[in-house]
Every structure is written in C-alpha cells, then in structure tokens.
C-alpha cells in the first residue's frame, strides 16, 4: 500500500495541535472506515472531540491542505493511492446524539446512525422517518446524499442544518439552502455538517413499527446487506432502474478480480474478498460502458469516489455519452 506523508503534515502543524482534544492519526487506513473495506491511507485523520474542537482545528490548518469528511463510509469508494490532506471523522461523543426538540421535531448529530434517529422517532410516535431504518449510514451522509428509500427522502424531513466551513466559520442552512435533488445536495462542498433539526408528524406507534419491519424485511430479501458493499452503485436514470439496465447489459454477477456486481442485486457492487479500490472502480466503469453500449443510457455514479490512483492503476472514466 502506498504511504502518504501524514507524519510530515502533522509535524508541519507544530505545537498548536496540543490544544486539540480530538485524535489525530497520520497515515490512517481508509479500508477500516469504508464498508467496501478497500482503499488507501488518509494522510491525516482528525476525530474532533466536539464542535469547538472542530472549529479550532480548521482555524489552525493551513488553507492549502484539502479537507474532506467521512461518515461511516457506506457510500464511499476510496482509491488505493490514498487521500491527500485531512479526513475528518466526527466522534460519537461530540456528534452522535439524537434528542427531542418538540412534539414532532428532533435534533440529531451528524454521526448519529440513521437507524438511531428512526428508533427514537418510533419511541415518541413521530412519523415520516421509517425509511431511515434501512439505511446504514449516518445523518451527515444522509444530509449530503439526500439519502432516501421506500418512498421517503431526507429532504422531506430537514428543517435546518448546522455546519462548519473550511475556515472554521459556523453556518445554519435552511432546507432550501441545501439545494436538494435526487441523491444530491448543492450545498457547498466545503461544509461539514455537525447536526440538523428534522420534523415529522404525529403517527401511531404500531403503524411506524409495521413500516420499519416492512423496510427491514424488504432489504433482507433483495439487497446483499451483509456483504462488503457501498449500496447502490449508480443513480437511477430518469424513467429507468439502474439495476434493470445493468441486468439487460449482462453485467449481473460480473467480476473483475474480487470485485463483483452482486448476483442478488446487480446495482450493488461487492468486495468478495480482498478487492482493491482499482478493481471496484474498474468494474464500475466497465459496467457503465456496457450499459451505454446496450441501452444508450449513461449511468451516473451514486457512490462517491475519492483519493488518488496508484501509479499504473488509473481507471479511465467511460465517456461514452460524450464520444458516441
Ligand atoms: C447495504 C447498503 C444499503 C444502502 N441503502 C441505501 C438506501 O436505501 N438509500 C440511500 O440513500 N443510500 C443507501 N446506501 C448508501 C449510504 O448508506 C447512504 O448514502 C448514507 O447516507 C451515507 O452515509 P455515510 O455516513 O456512510 O456517509 P459516507 O459514505 O461516509 O459519505 C458519503 C458522502 O457524505 C459526505 N458526508 C458524510 N458525513 C458528512 C458530514 N458530517 N458533513 C458533510 N458531508 C458529509 C461525505 O463527504 C461523502 O461525500 C446504502 C449503503 C449500503 C452499504
């Protein structure tokens, strides 16, 4: 695995880092973070103790150092050459709580698992959150990806989002400011969401419980949820299902190295063993090419791909939609 230069970056920050209460880890293995269990090293990982610690760190970090934030990596494909700069991982202690704000409103920290928010709304008879029961990510990831399932979406429930920018300034965004569309938010990429307020509606607990059970049962029968995966690989193109296009292109079960398009749900890519980031991404691009050749439809990645390729293992993006 290629080494990045985390110790050097850490040393360049000097003694100021001693004031921080969070944890700094140079050359942090991202394969321990992502659900794919693949990918290279993050040059430096910072786990802030709380929001003040996050602000203090961003204010001391030189402007030219790139920063990205990871949730639990259930939608991330990290390349084998690793990630230059800093990866922020919010600590459960500082950013993991979920609490009731009013009869129908809840406040959740950005590293709170979606499932915990769903469970707490069930306890209080608040409807509109059952879809979160089946999504394995965190609230931060849901806010960024407009995560949704079973007819529900994050954008329907968000009231306001609290965030910190790259310079350490704090912001409060309204639902409209988040610029939501299908699996996308146009909110500035440099924002780190710290927590958000959501609103549901009063609902019978038995009905919420039944909806959650239906969500769980559906997933267990149609998705490879116990595999090393990143969830849906590609977005559904307008008027089409990505999985159907992939199936029709003959890519169900297709393998490159240990990376495979799941035979169970062919829009889920899985790591069947020790797949590298290269194998996973190369498989994805090969599928995009086959689908374009058979249907004329360009698939768009839903999974976020990050970091640098290992030299000699670059994956060329299939640009069929531009060159055909
Ligand atoms: C088995 C399985 C099933 C899935 N099913 C669904 C589904 O039904 N519906 C669905 O929508 N998704 C689904 N996913 C994908 C994934 O769970 C969601 O996209 C989830 O919202 C990602 O959350 P995360 O914490 O894992 O984010 P990550 O994968 O760590 O990050 C995803 C993106 O969010 C950004 N991000 C994370 N935290 C923050 C933050 N605090 N501030 C700003 N940006 C942040 C990251 O920078 C990255 O761009 C599934 C994944 C798996 C593995």
Automatic annotation (TrEMBL):
One of its GO terms (molecular function) is FAD binding. Its EC number is 1.3.1.98. Cell wall formation. It comes from the Bacteria. Pathway: Cell wall biogenesis; peptidoglycan biosynthesis. Residues 36-203 form the FAD-binding PCMH-type domain. It catalyses: UDP-N-acetyl-alpha-D-muramate + NADP(+) = UDP-N-acetyl-3-O-(1-carboxyvinyl)-alpha-D-glucosamine + NADPH + H(+). Belongs to the MurB family. It is found in: Cytoplasm. It is an enzyme of class 1 (oxidoreductase). The active site is at 183, 232 (proton donor), 302. It comes from Pararhizobium polonicum. GO terms for cellular component: cytosol. This is UDP-N-acetylenolpyruvoylglucosamine reductase. InterPro entries: FAD-bd_PCMH (IPR016166), FAD-bd_PCMH-like_sf (IPR036318), FAD-bd_PCMH_sub1 (IPR016167), FAD-bd_PCMH_sub2 (IPR016169), MurB (IPR003170), MurB_C (IPR011601), MurB_C_sf (IPR036635), Oxid_FAD_bind_N (IPR006094). Its main location: cytoplasm. Its cofactor is FAD. The gene is murB. Keywords: Cell cycle, Cell division, Cell shape, Cell wall biogenesis/degradation, Cytoplasm, FAD, Flavoprotein, NADP, Oxidoreductase, Peptidoglycan synthesis. One of its GO terms (biological process) is regulation of cell shape.
């Amino acid at each position: 695995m290629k080494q990045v230069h985390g110790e050097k970056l850490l040393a360049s920050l000097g003694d100021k880092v001693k004031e921080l209460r969070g944890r700094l880890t140079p050359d942090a293995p991202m394969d321990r973070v992502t659900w794919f269990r693949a990918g290279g090293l993050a040059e430096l990982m910072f786990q802030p103790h709380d929001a003040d610690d996050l602000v203090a760190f961003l204010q001391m970090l030189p402007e030219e150092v790139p920063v990205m934030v990871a949730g639990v990596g259930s939608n991330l494909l990290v390349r084998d050459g690793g990630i230059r700069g800093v990866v922020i991982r919010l600590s459960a202690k500082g950013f993991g709580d979920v609490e009731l704000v009013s009869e129908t409103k809840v406040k959740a920290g950005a590293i709170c698992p979606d499932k915990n928010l769903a469970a707490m709304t069930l306890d209080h008879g608040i409807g509109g959150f059952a879809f979160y029961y089946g999504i394995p990510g965190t609230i931060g990831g849901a806010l960024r990806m407009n995560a949704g399932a079973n007819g529900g979406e994050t954008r329907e429930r968000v009231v306001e989002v609290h965030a910190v920018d790259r310079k350490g300034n704090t912001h409060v965004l309204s639902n409209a400011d988040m610029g939501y569309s299908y699996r996308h938010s146009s909110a500035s990429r440099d924002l780190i969401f710290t927590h958000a307020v959501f609103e549901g509606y009063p609902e019978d607990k038995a009905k919420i419980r039944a909806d959650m059970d239906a969500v769980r049962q559906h997933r267990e029968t149609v998705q490879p949820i116990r595999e090393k995966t990143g969830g849906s690989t590609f977005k559904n193109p307008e008027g089409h299902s990505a999985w159907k296009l992939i199936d029709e292109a003959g890519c169900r079960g297709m393998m490159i190295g240990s990376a495979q398009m799941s035979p169970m749900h062919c829009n889920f890519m899985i790591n069947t063993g020790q797949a590298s980031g290269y194998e996973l991404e190369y498989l994805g691009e090969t599928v995009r090419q086959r689908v374009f050749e058979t249907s004329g439809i360009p698939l768009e990645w839903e999974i976020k791909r990050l970091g640098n390729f290992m030299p000699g293992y670059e994956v060329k993006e299939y640009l069929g939609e531009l060159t055909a």
